[in-house]
């Protein structure tokens, strides 16, 4: 790691420490805080897939010893979405440079 990267990490850590000190010092001061933001969990969505694909997914879920086909499909879908997001970010970076 270069000296410049080490200095940047050290500066970032110091900045984080300064932020922590500021937040702690203001934690009891109600006027220092904005109104609370309410966050709602998104509702689950259901998907419809062809029967043959569902049967193949059920087989693979059992093969991978997953609790249920729904959990296996969720895991596979989550992994694929993450891969697609990384690929999209990389392509965007390449286009920008």
Number of domains: 1
Sheet/helix structural class: mainly alpha
User: Could you give a short account of the major beta sheet?
Assistant: none
| Element order: H for helix, E for strand | HHH
The low-pLDDT segments are none
DSSP strand tally: 0
Q: Average pLDDT value?
A: 85
Number of helices: 3
- In percent, how much strand structure appears in the residues? under 5%
Q: How would you sum up the global shape?
A: elongated
How much is the radius of gyration in Å?
Answer: 23 Å
Q: How far apart, in Å, are the first and last alpha carbons? A: 24 Å
Query: Portion of residues in helices?
Result: 55-70%
Helix-strand layout with pairing:
Blueprint: H1 3-26, H2 51-63, H3 69-96
Helix pairs in contact: 2-3
Descriptive key words:
mainly alpha, 97 residues, 0% strand
Detailed description of the structure:
- The chain has helices at 3-26, 51-63, 69-96.
- With 97 residues, it is mostly helical.
- It has one domain (3-28, 49-96).
- Helix 2 (51-63) crosses helix 3 (69-96).
- The protein is elongated, with a radius of gyration of 23 Å.
- The mean pLDDT is 85.
Give a concise summary:
By secondary structure, this protein is mostly helical. The chain has helices spanning about 5-25, 50-65, 70-95.
